[in-house]
Batch of 3 targets.
Target 1
Amino acid sequence: MIGVVLAEDQAMVLGALSALLKLESDIDVLGTAADGESAWRELQRLQPDVLVTDIEMPGLTGLELAQRVQRHGMATKVIIVTTFARAGFLRRALDAGACGYLLKDAPAEQLAEAIRQVHRGGRAIDPQLALDAWGEADPLNDRERQVLRLAGEGLTAGEIAAQLHLSQGTVRNYLSESIGKLGVGNRIEAYRLARQKGWL
């Protein structure tokens, strides 16, 4: 049996995924979580073979969960299931150690097959996204991405500085670097473009 934990903040989607996988004779849904922190607790408690997680969740994102699994040397394989059909997200998921990346509008049977494939040591990635992913590299580094995300959420340079324990000057430098790298006029345009490309 392949032990699976599901992490998804939309209750209806979580219920549907769980019901779908319970129909498979070789897959056992060990636990579910509606946010990143409770997913992390379930991972530590249950030590599943595979984690199936959304990207955007309260607490920790699916990408941050994948990074934690990688950092702690856990045997759990991670599959991201998301609505984000963006190459930037796929690249970041692979960098975080994810073995699978599927879109929520994929046929239902693809998920069970992806779980089996990843459990066997393979990868399960949406083919069109895989092609797109190698086209355009993400120009932002982790800190620039962090600062730009907070700026896009409406925080001032002072608030970002306080939250990230940086000086306001350093925050402004990161923002101007991001704006320059993305070739736009201001932080709002930089945030929009980075979101659109899947880099945030």
Note: The two ends are 36 Å apart (CA to CA).
Target 2
Amino acid sequence: MLPYKTKQFFFELIKLSIVIGAFYFIYQKLINNPELDFHDFIGFLSKKDILSLKSILSLLFLTFFNWFFEIIKWQTLVSPIKKISFKNAFEQSLGSLTASLFTPNRIGEYGAKAIYYTSNYRKRILLINLLGNILQMFTTTVFGVIGFCFFTAKHQVNIDYYKFAQYLLIGLLIIALIVFIVLKTKLTIKGYSLEKIKHFILGFPKKTMGFALFLSMLRYMIFSFQFYLLLQLFGTEISYFNAMTVITSMYLLASIIPSIFIFDVVIKGSVAIYLFGFIGFSEITILSTIAMMWLLNFVLPSMIGSYFVINFNLPKDPH
């Protein structure tokens, strides 16, 4: 057994390493972005109206409410098993963002949120976090499918519908197979049977889930409008409806393309360039918009979250 002071030292070292890793990751993404040169990005911003006080306040206002609703959503989803304050939900949401920023598909968020709770809660917290992500993904899919239908109706998109139908059929068969295995087998994940997982999700309070879905939709409308506002600030001329057909399609396609979070900005940028190319928007405008969305909704909150990571203490298990 290691002495208490040695354990404490290593624990503090781990927290510091997470924060340094997050800041280094942000620095690398800004300076060594293969699609957008940092100096070109700064030069482009300085030529536009985006650096005015009114523009900055408008963008920060939308960022605030994006994360405000995410924090309320987390507080709501956790409430059936443990009541937490808004302050606790705020700390857990932003702290876990910082800790997971450089992990593939932000998978580290699951463990980061679970560690805020004593061991008897952690398995359920993992499932609740999964449920929250499913609700957000469901919102992205619904809005995305609607937007993509309008987009393809207006623009000549080269889609091989035969291949698309093949992939869709294969995907549905895989999902059906997974569902069948989950329902008919007694597999366990770290001691938590799939039967228990199914019962947990199906037995989750419907009102709570419904309200969390509503908050997911509010978040989606806020950050998609923020994307539209950035396009406007960069001097593009496009109606809100036409912009939303592209933005919703972009989020849908970017979310279903297999990726790791390290390349998430690049993938969103590539998809956005392709889709906005139908309207004739310049690459620098689209890439700068993507970069600003990342700075506002991930980098800024993760910098605040670094404070919570540094000051984090493990909860004590009840004896």
Note: Residues 15-23+38-310 form one domain.
Target 3
Amino acid sequence: MGKNFTSFSYKNTTPFTDKIKINGTGSTYELGYAMPLKKFKDFSYLGSITLNDYNATGESDLNNLDWKTSYIGIQNVVDYRFYDSFYFFISAQAGLNLSTILYGKQQLNNSTYNLTKNKDFSGIILQPVVGINAKYYISKSGFLSLGCNFTKSISLNPTPEKVSFNTFQILFGGYFDLIKDKHL
């Protein structure tokens, strides 16, 4: 679990439109499975289900804007452990998240809109993910982690306004070994 820091960008097709800087914070949750790749000892595969809140506010001389959105997704990541100490290691991660909107509300001045049916927000969102993660063993069967990720959304819907968002995530986690080694 952790925190999303998101900035939105869009190409508005309407001339003379008020430009608003839109950014905000939300929560992130992830539940998954990590599996070492036996042929490559420092690599692991991580598959997970994600729930991300991408919220934002913006203000200009003419408009006040507030977006509250939640996306559910499937994330696949390859983890490369490049530093290994006795109880502590650091790894780099790269992968892909495919998600779709669960909840979305826009407040523009005094009007409220449902974003789940809006083509700029709905459909499949593709997000490349890169990050770094530090893990500390708390026992033989578990460890805690602290990490950060960078993502950029790419909507697979062809829309004229091209809404996308860049996200910096700070993540706190716990990992627990579900399969005990018989030789220990």
Note: The radius of gyration is 19 Å.
